[in-house]
Write a structure and sequence with these properties.
single chain; 452 residues; mainly alpha; two-stranded antiparallel ribbon; 18 helices; 70% helix; disordered N terminus; antiport; cell membrane; sodium:proton antiporter activity
């Protein structure tokens, strides 16, 4: 292998190293969280600058899709929030599917603690929000502070370094995924409004097409684009939020590779031997058309099951494309035109911010302590109550999903702006608190190891 690399042109070797480094860089959670933060700050600055009219004009630009006489036109804002975010929810659905199959959600006893913590992290923030909005407020926004932003939360945890126990990171990821499950259910059953059941007549055949393709062994992701679009269109017609199509398709993604007569590794080894025999040591031999290229591609592809392969392929696009674009399109709240004194806006801001900053850690800690004291489960190895508190603080970073739910909960622009301000303030304080507490936690961990 070393001889082959030395024989390559230096420019090619450098390019390969650069692309490998870039690929590793794109899968670092802390980096994607920083990009998301930069876009949110950029949106706020843009919406409150002399260029503010261009910010609103950009997202209201109509974008049309037409085939013959049929045309479908919506704003750029719609295509980002209802179109591209479907891909985000597709990745969420696949994460949930993997966890149910072989992860923390595959064992009820193992999942009991993060499930309880997630439920506490939903109920307590919702109660705090409702307490702020009990008298003439806006109770419809109770679900806004219940979600956790995985990219931000895990990104902050990654900034704290390798001293954080691996089990604590797994606990945070599991809690955030369960939060996503709850958020999806809330969107489906609370904020979808009255359903037009005729849309299911469109979505249903789309799902049947997906099942049929899986049944006949078609595992190329591109083959599922059209059925996925049909499901998306059907859900849009029903009045349910069309991004739920992503969750449904993600949950339907196979967790095992396509059935083959032999294991992919065995097939690769056999094909390699066949190629060596045909080509020979001189490098001359059978024409490329005679080589089992299709079989080789299938074996290479099926080394990873579809749910892993597609998720890994979409991760950079979602983390560095979809989510930052969503932040840029939705975090731009004009502070000059925001009137917190009217229509319960101040209660919305206070309720959302307090629920994220106080409700999340209190809910996570209280629920975790309760189920542990009852003997239903125990803390993961290497995880202390200080670590659970850190997870609770980071769970208060609600950014992406909270803003998404806010747009479903509030049709009034002033209330929506107030909810976004509450999300931004609450998430920023939670992230700052998590960094401070995390630093103290890391120092205690190092001191404990030094004493040992």
């Amino acid at each position: 292998m070393q001889t082959t690399l030395q024989a390559l042109p230096r420019a090619q070797v450098l390019a390969q190293r650069a692309f490998s480094a870039l690929e590793r860089f794109l899968h670092i959670e802390a980096v994607s969280g920083i990009v998301l933060l930069i876009m949110a700050v950029a949106a706020l600055l843009w919406a409150n600058s002399p260029l503010a009219p261009s910010y609103d004009a950009l997202w209201h630009t109509p974008v049309s899709v037409s085939v013959g006489s049929w045309a479908f036109s919506q704003s750029l804002h719609f295509w980002i929030n209802d179109g591209l975010m479907t891909i985000f929810f597709l990745v969420v659905g696949m994460e949930i599917r993997r966890e149910i199959h072989e992860g923390a959600l595959s064992d009820v006893r193992q999942a009991a603690l993060p499930i309880a913590a997630a439920l506490g992290g939903v109920l307590v923030p919702a109660s705090i929000y409702l307490a702020f909005n009990a008298r003439g407020g806006q109770p419809n926004g109770w679900a806004v502070p219940t979600a956790t932003d995985i990219a931000f939360a895990v990104g902050v945890l990654a900034i704290l370094g390798r001293s954080i126990p691996g089990n604590l990171r797994v606990f945070l990821l599991t809690l955030a995924i369960i939060d996503d499950v709850i958020a999806v259910l809330i969107i489906a059953f609370v904020y979808s409004g009255g359903l037009d059941y005729s849309g299911f007549a469109v979505a249903g055949p789309g799902l049947l097409m997906v099942l049929a393709l899986q049944r006949i062994g078609v595992w190329s992701a591109y083959a599922y684009v059209i059925p996925g679009a049909v499901v998306w269109g059907g859900l849009l017609m029903t009045g349910a939020h069309p991004t739920l199509a992503g969750v449904v398709l993600g949950l339907m993604t196979p967790v095992v590779s396509v059935p083959m007569r032999e294991r992919p590794m065995d097939a690769l080894a056999r094909i390699t031997r066949d190629l060596s025999d045909k080509v020979g040591p001189s490098g001359c031999g059978a024409a490329s058309g005679e080589l089992p290229l299709r079989e080789l591609r299938v074996a290479q592809r099926e080394l990873l099951p579809p749910v892993v392969r597609v998720q890994q392929a979409l991760h950079p696009f979602v983390a560095y494309g979809v989510m930052p674009l969503f932040a840029l399109a939705n975090a731009g709240v004009s502070l000059t035109g925001l009137n917190l004194a009217a229509g319960g806006a101040s209660a919305v801001v206070s309720g959302v911010a307090a629920a994220l900053v106080l409700g999340k850690p209190l809910g996570v800690l209280a629920a975790s302590w309760t189920v542990v004291k009852l003997g239903w489960c125990r803390l993961p190895t290497g995880v202390s109550w200080s670590g659970i508190g850190l997870v609770g603080l980071l769970a208060g970073i609600g950014f992406t999903m909270s803003i998404f739910i806010a747009m479903l909960a509030f049709s009034d622009a002033a209330l929506l702006g107030a909810a976004k301000i509450g999300v931004l303030v609450g998430s920023a304080i939670s992230a700052g608190g998590g960094l401070v507490w995390g630093t103290v936690y890391v120092l205690r961990q190092r001191a404990a190891r030094t004493c040992l």
